[in-house]
Amino acid sequence: MGKYSGNPAAAAALFEGHQVHRDVYIDPEVFRLEMKHVFANAWVFVGHASQTPQKGDYFATSIGDQPVIQVRHSTGDIHVLYNRCPHKGTKIVIDRQGNTGKFFRCPYHAWSFKTDGCLLAIPLKKGYADTGLDQTESARGMKAVGAVRNYRGFIFARLAEEGISFEDFFGDSLSSLDNMVDRSPAGRLEVAGPPLRYMHHCNWKMLVENQTDTCHPMVAHESSAGTAVKLYEELNLPEDAPKPPAMEIIAPFMSPYEFFENMGIRTWPNGHGHTGVNHSIHSNYSRIPGYFEKMVESYGEEKAKAILDENRHNTVYFPNIMIKGPIQQLRIFIPLAANKTLVESYIYRLVDAPDELTARTAMYNRMINAPTSIVGHDDLEMYERAQEGLEADGLEWVNIQRLRTGEEDFSEEVVENGTTERQMRNQFDAWARFMTWDTPAREAAE
Ligand code: FES
Ligand SMILES: [Fe+2]
């Protein structure tokens, strides 16, 4: 038994307000506790409704380390079921996605289940007569997760049966998702193809923290973005020459510290927050012809302007996704082990908007987030160096103290200087609370 085994309170104590112990990134037992508690008690993103548009469409993924299936039931509702046969545990689906028709059928002994998980049929069922099978959990079929919510097409689930409500968990942070969806003249998004997938040999929290780390772009991305800017300047083009879209995307990564200080960071309760309160690296993209007119048609001029003037940069939804409203992107950081994380970067199409917007979004994804990206590798190098460096003995703590001048209250929405590390502390505050959410220690404290 290691020092954290079965002891979420000991793990939660690894966050001390201004610092976190290295074990939160490197210890396999802490990782197991995160999967069991944090990822069970929080609301976790599963998928987008447009990934399962037809009845019987399913999408296999995971919530923490739990294999689950998002499926469109015959009523049109989306259900999230554990990907496990109630007979002997066999995974029901193995493909990433598909259509199962009116029911799932286990490949081992052919028990079948409706698409809401209910048991439909068992071959040679008379063998269970008078056995009391109907009194067992197995007879209820494929188990559903604790709670599911479809928020404007985004499917979130909470594994735990009891816990914080969707509204309390997200609160006003939903404004970032709203803005992303409102950018469609039809108020609807559709997933644009499969995600870019990229394996990282580091802890999942390093990636989440990086999403609001505004003191790294001009340093870590100097080799990629800095080189691009330098080469472009050497072309000596006239001031008013139109900037190629790729330059519009990459140049802002080299913005100076003041740009990031002034952009601002907003933090919400429960570990959510976003960079880019006042402006962001997405603020100065060229207008796409015809798009604004479409927005005005749908929303009226004032509202259309308000939607498009919101240029939030990265919004982190605790525990493990980030969205970029202005370019309709969602990245999910899928924890596989203490030192292994799969990143999936999705893009969405704004229904009824010009295709050029999707083209720009796809270009951003390829340039910044693809395994072949010139920017993503800079970050990957830093995470993997940190993962290795943290094994060095002699120094056990990681500092997250920038712009922290005293005790902080994370139950309030706060806007601050854009180079603060408050959002990282906010995440760890939520991490520690959801780690111990379902423990007697917390129940006693309430
Ligand atoms: S394991 Fe699924 S039917 Fe037996
Ligand atoms: Fe970066």
TrEMBL record:
Q: Which InterPro entries match?
A: Rieske_2Fe-2S, Rieske_2Fe-2S_sf, Ring_hydroxy_dOase_asu_C_dom, Rng_hydr_dOase-A
For this protein, the record's SUPFAM superfamilies field holds: Bet v1-like (SSF55961), ISP domain (SSF50022)
UniProt keyword list? 2Fe-2S, Dioxygenase, Iron, Iron-sulfur, Metal-binding, Oxidoreductase
Q: Name one Pfam family in it.
A: Rieske
Q: Which PROSITE patterns does this one have?
A: RIESKE
- CDD domains given in the database record: RHO_alpha_C_AntDO-like
The record places domain Rieske at: 43-123
Single annotated GO MF: dioxygenase activity
Q: State whether keyword NAD applies.
A: no
- Give the family from UniProt: Belongs to the bacterial ring-hydroxylating dioxygenase alpha subunit family.
The protein's name: Aromatic ring-hydroxylating dioxygenase subunit alpha
